[in-house]
Design a protein that fits this description.
With 391 residues, the protein is an alpha/beta fold. The chain has one domain (25-387): Alpha/Beta hydrolase fold, catalytic domain (Rossmann fold). It has helices at 2-20, 117-130, 146-160, 180-189, 191-203, 217-230, 252-262, 278-286, 300-303, 325-328, 330-341, 350-363; strands at 43-57, 65-83, 107-113, 134-139, 165-170, 208-214, 240-246, 269-273, 307-311, 372-377, 382-387. The longest helix is centred in the first third of the chain and has 19 residues, at 2-20. It is globular, with a radius of gyration of 20 Å.
Length: 391
Amino acid sequence: MVRQTIIRVFSAAMLAVAVSGCAGQATRDLIVAATVATPASQIAGRHDIFVATTRARSERQAEVFDGRRSPETSYARVDMTVPGIHKTGEIERRKRNQQADPGKFFLANSVTGYADETAFQKSLRADIAANGGRALVFIHGYNTAFDAAVYRITQIVHDSGYKGTPVLFTWASGGNTVDYVYDSNSASAARDSLEETLRMVARAGAKRIDVIAHSMGNWVTMEALRQLAISGDRDLGNRLGDVVLASPDIDVDVFKAQMKRYGVPDKPFVLFLSRDDRALRISGFLAGNRPRLGDYGNPEDIAGLGVVAIDLSQIKAGDNLNHTKFADNPVLIKILGERLQKGDDLDMNERQITDDINGIAEGLGGVVGGAAEIVITTPFKVLNVVVGGGG
């Protein structure tokens, strides 16, 4: 039995390597020794990324944090630039043998560490105040090294046009395809730290805290929200804004139990799912062929929990796993930005939800070249919307 389990896990891991093509990332260095002198006109944007992490500090200074776990939460701020050649939905990464040219690649200009939470919160408070009291917390998924997590939140913030303070919560992912079990345990170990990070963002003066979680990061997020609910402060003193669950790598039954403890949210959570998500198929296989929330074929089953499910199965992705559509597809990331920038609260009532979702559906018309159906399941009704041109 043990031997069969080992073979099964190994086979699935090798399948993941074969289909992902991401096992050979050129470098994990975030800090570079020298950058090419580049005119300001060749820089598309600059973003200060605040970081809370359960990763251990790397022995290599250029990597900053690695995939090992730390018993303590560390804090930092990364000054990032986006290249002028940037295309929406893409992350232009430097390879090991290429010069660090900020006009061509995402680059970190500096990384500032903080001695403790107090120092970090002081800096965070100043930035939140300068950005209108808005903060966005992003939680990445499985197989994500520190540099990749920083690049991803920078791309999301830049492409969505988000104007608040970006906060990356990065847990100790090994950053390797074969580290699925390690990553799963690391995610569980990080839930208390994420809960405290959300509370800290609130203490730092945020009037609205939006949350975006991707893949296995949804497990950490839902556990932290569940813990907030148990403590009697599930919406952070009415500061919790949009909660976006993108391609969640969570067992459906586990999610139902988490939502039962959390309760129906005042503002519905937004779920992006896709039935052609190959990464979640692998995850479901590893879990004993159990359905994952991010590719669940029966969203009506969970809508009553207070979830708006947007099925993106017919939408093109930027990766061959169809696992990062929310960030890779140029139109989807713009629509996400519009949702985050609205600033109004989407209450749990049928008319407002329907109007808001119809607006999203209208925007989705630019995503596809030919006609495609987007199925949007709300707590009140199912909307079958045909978007795109006919052919």
